[in-house]
Amino acid sequence: MKMIRQATNLRHLLRKQVNNRRPVYLSSHPLTSLLCSRRLFKAVNLDTLTPTMPSSMDPKGIVVFTSVGRSQYGFDIFTVNLNQTPITGSTSEHRLTDGISINYNAQFVNEDQSIVFISERSGCPRIYLTCRGLSKPEQLPSVPDSLFHDRPIIKSHHLYFISAHEQPEKPFQSWSALYSTELHGKRKIIRLSPYGVVDYSPAISKSGTFVAIASYGSRPWEGDFHELKTDIVVFPTSDPNNRLVVCERGGWPTWSGDSTIFFHRQADDGWWSIFRVQFPENPLEFSEFPVLPLRITPPGLHCFTPAAFNDGKRIAVATRRRGKCYRHIEIFDLERKVFHPVTVLLNPAFHHYNPFVSSNSESLGYHRFRGKSTEGESRVPHLEPVASPIKDLGMLRINGSFPSFSPDGSLLALNPALDENGDIKVVKSDGSERWTLIKGRVAFCNSWSPTEKYVIYSSLGPIFESTKTTVQIARVTFEPSYLNSDLQEIPCDVKILTREDTGNNAFPSCSPDGKSLVFRSGRSGHKNLYILDAVNGEFNDGIRKLTAGPWIDTMPSWSPNGDLIAFSSNMHNPNNVDAFSIYVIKPDGSDLRRIYAAGPKGSSDVDMERINHVCFSPNGEWLVFAANIGGVTAEPVSFPNQFQPYGDLYVMRLDGSGLRRLTCDGYENGTPTWHFGGELDMRRLCLGNDAGVELTGEFDEPLWITSDFN
C-alpha cells in the first residue's frame, strides 16, 4: 500500500508539472524504478501517467517538412533459397512484402517464409507480420503512441523490439530502448532497458535464453553518428537487469548458438569489419569480460550488419567494396575465409541492406528498392501524411525541400533537389498536380509573397558554400493562367535582387506586408542578416544590415504579424560551426534575444544545441524547427545516407516553454513550414499511383563511408 500511495503522489506531481507547462521526465523521479517493477505494473497503469496537455494549449494546423532521401527508398523485403544460390549456379528471388510504403529490418519467424518486419504504411515505423494465408500484413502489438519501432524479433511467443516513446531524463539522449510483449494473453508491454539507458539493435540467442544489444548506456550523447559509441551487452531474457558488457565498441550483434556473438565496428585501419566474441554457454558465469574480440572479415572492403547462421560456419553481411557504388549481400565462409556473392548477381545496380537468416539456414533475406516493374506503389506522392504526436497538428512529408505556401494555401513551392538538377516546383496543396519553374538552375529556400499569389522568392546558386560564392536572391513571377493549361514547365520572370559581386546571398523570408525580405548574406566576410526591398532589391539603396558579427546568422523567418524575425545563429560560440541556437530580433534591429530549447540559460545542455530551419506558426505563438536534442534513434550505418540522422522536428512556444518532439526516426528531418492560408483537408490528398513522380530508387549510400585507405 505504501508503494501505491507513493505512485499516486508521483502521478499528482506529474500532472502539476504538466499544468505548469514544464517538461516531464519519468526517469528523473526516485520512484521510477518502483513504478517499472513487474510487481507494481499490476497496481499502477503507466499509461495514466502519460502527460497529455489540454488540446487548447497545443499547436494546431499542419506542418510540412522533408526527410532526406526517404521518398525514393521504395523498400520491400526479399528472400533467396540458399539451396539454389548463385554459388550453385542458379537462384530465384522472392518478394515477401506487398509493395505498400517502405518495408525493412525483417527477421524470419519460422521456416515457411513468415517474417516480422517494420513498415511505415500507417504513417510511422510499426511492426507487422506476414505469412502464408494472410491477405495483407498483420499489425502486431506495439506502443500506441510511439512514433518509432525497429528491429522486431519473435522468439518463444514473445515479441522483442526497439521503441522510442519514453522521454529520457535529460536532453541529448536517445529515446531508443528495448521492449517485449507476449503474443498471447494480456500482451502487456514491458521495458527491458533500464530507465535512462539507450539500447539499439537487439538479437536473441538460439535457445531464447539471452539477449544481446548495442548499448550506449546512460551517458549523454556525444554527437557521434558515423560510428555510434555503443558496447555489446548481454542479459538473460528472464532477468533484464542482470546486464553484462561482453565487448566494448560494437554494434548490430547477432548470435551463433548461445555462446558466440558477431558484430560490426570500424577497425583501426578504417574498414568497417565483422568481429567475434566467444564465451561459455552461460556468459554470466564468465569473469573475464569485457574481452578483446577477434576480427573476422579482412581489410579491403567494408562489412556491416552481420547475420549469423546457426551452423556456426557462415555469416551473411552487407558489403561495400572498393571502387563499387552499391551495397550488396554476401556470405562469408568462416572456415575457408572467402566471400560468396549473392545479390550482385541478381540486382547489380541496387543497394541491399541488413541481411537475416532462417533458423534452418536455408533462406537469406534482406531489403532493397522494389524496382520499377514490380507490383505495388510505383510513384512518390508530392505530399505524404505522417503520424503526429499532437492531436490537432497534422504532419505532411513532401517530396522535396524548403516548402512554402501561397497566401491562400492552395499552392506550395518546393525544391525537388539541391544539386544541378534543382529548380522550383509548384504543387497543388492536395498533391494532385505539379509544375516546374526555373528549370536547370540550382534553387533552394523558397518564400512565397504573403500579398502576391504568384510571386516566389528563392536563392539561386549552390547551397552551403563559402561567403564569396555567388548565390543570389531572386524574385520569381508567373502567370496564373498557365496553371490551367497542359504545360508542365511554366514560363516565369526571374528578377535578381542582389548584386553579383556581393557573394553568398540566401535563405530569403518575406515580410507579412510583402514589402521586404530578410536574408543571409556573406558580403561582409561573415554570414549575417540583411533586409532588402522585395521589389527593387538593393539597386536603389534598398538594403540595410540587421545583424553583424564574426559568426553565422542564417535561415531567418519573419513572424506572421511582422514584429519579430527568428533565425539560427552561433553568435554565442562563434568558433563552433556546429552550435546553432534560436534567436529572435525585431526588424529594426532591437531586442535581440536567444530562446533556449534544451534547457535554461546557463546550463551546459544549451551549448550542445544544433537548431536550424526555424519557422513561425500562423498565429505567431509557436516555433517549429529541426534540432539534435533527441540524439540518434537507430544505427545510421544500417540506413542510406543521412547527413544529420539526429535531426528531428520540434515545436516550442515563443517564450521557450512547451517543447514537444514531432518526429522520431532514423532520418534527417528538416526544412519545416507551417501551412498558412485556408483549411487543408488531409483526407483529400492525392496518394497512391494516381499522382506524384516515378519511384526510381535513387538515393545515396552514407557519404561518410569511404574506401580511401592504403
Please, could you describe this protein's structure?
The protein is mainly beta. It folds into two domains: 321 residues, Neuraminidase; 294 residues, Neuraminidase (6 Propeller), CATH 2.120.10.30. 4% of the residues lie in helices and 37% in strands. It is built from three helices and 50 strands. Strand 45 and strand 46 form a beta hairpin. The N terminus is likely disordered. This is Dipeptidylpeptidase IV N-terminal domain-containing protein. It comes from Gossypium darwinii.
What's the CATH first level of the largest domain?
Mainly Beta
Per CATH, the architecture of the largest domain is 6 Propeller
Strand order of the largest sheet: 27-28-1-49
Q: Compute the number of helices.
A: 3
Radius of gyration from the alpha-carbon trace, in angstroms: 26 Å
InterPro entries: 6-blade_b-propeller_TolB-like (IPR011042), WD40 (IPR011659)
Pfam families: PD40
Protein name: Dipeptidylpeptidase IV N-terminal domain-containing protein
Key terms for this structure?
2 domains; 710 residues; 3 helices; 4% helix; mainly beta; Neuraminidase; single chain; four-stranded mixed beta sheet; four-stranded antiparallel beta sheet
Which helices and strands appear, and what pairs or packs with what?
Layout: H1 2-19, H2 32-35, H3 38-41, E1 61-67, E2 75-81, E3 93-95, E4 103-108, E5 115-119, E6 126-130, E7 138-139, E8 149-155, E9 158-163, E10 177-182, E11 190-191, E12 198-204, E13 210-217, E14 231-236, E15 244-247, E16 251-256, E17 260-266, E18 272-278, E19 294-295, E20 301-308, E21 314-321, E22 328-333, E23 338-341, E24 352-357, E25 363-369, E26 379-380, E27 383-386, E28 393-398, E29 401-405, E30 411-415, E31 424-428, E32 434-437, E33 443-448, E34 455-460, E35 472-478, E36 492-496, E37 505-510, E38 516-521, E39 528-533, E40 543-545, E41 553-558, E42 565-569, E43 581-585, E44 593-595, E45 612-616, E46 622-627, E47 648-653, E48 660-661, E49 669-674, E50 693-694
Protein name: Dipeptidylpeptidase IV N-terminal domain-containing protein
InterPro entries: 6-blade_b-propeller_TolB-like, WD40
